[in-house]
Amino acid sequence: MAIIAILDLQLKPESLESAPGILRATLTDTRAFPGCLGLTVLNDSADPTHVVVYETWESVEHDRAYRAWRATAEGASELGTLLAAAPKLTLFTVAEGI
């Protein structure tokens, strides 16, 4: 069953200039990871330091494999250099029949 992962990011104000390039590089790898069905980056229209990444994964197992890969030296990115606070990750399933 497909799942939706919402990654809520609070960026440092001083990182706004470098953020697009780092996010692009990081999310290019995310999109290429097995099981990633797609992702969308949402910018808060009232707060340029607030970004949400909306990811669709083939299964919770694919998402777990991706998160585990990101925790390795091979999967590490520069995303952490942009953040003012720890990212918040929430996983959702689609409510069928509602």
UniProtKB/TrEMBL annotation:
<dbReference type="InterPro" id="IPR007138">
    <property type="entry name" value="ABM_dom"/>
</dbReference>
<dbReference type="InterPro" id="IPR011008">
    <property type="entry name" value="Dimeric_a/b-barrel"/>
</dbReference>
<keyword id="KW-0503">Monooxygenase</keyword>
<protein>
    <submittedName>
        <fullName>Antibiotic biosynthesis monooxygenase</fullName>
    </submittedName>
</protein>
<dbReference type="GO" id="GO:0004497">
    <property type="term" value="F:monooxygenase activity"/>
</dbReference>
<feature type="domain" description="ABM">
    <location>
        <begin position="3"/>
        <end position="92"/>
    </location>
</feature>
<dbReference type="Pfam" id="PF03992">
    <property type="entry name" value="ABM"/>
</dbReference>
<keyword id="KW-0560">Oxidoreductase</keyword>
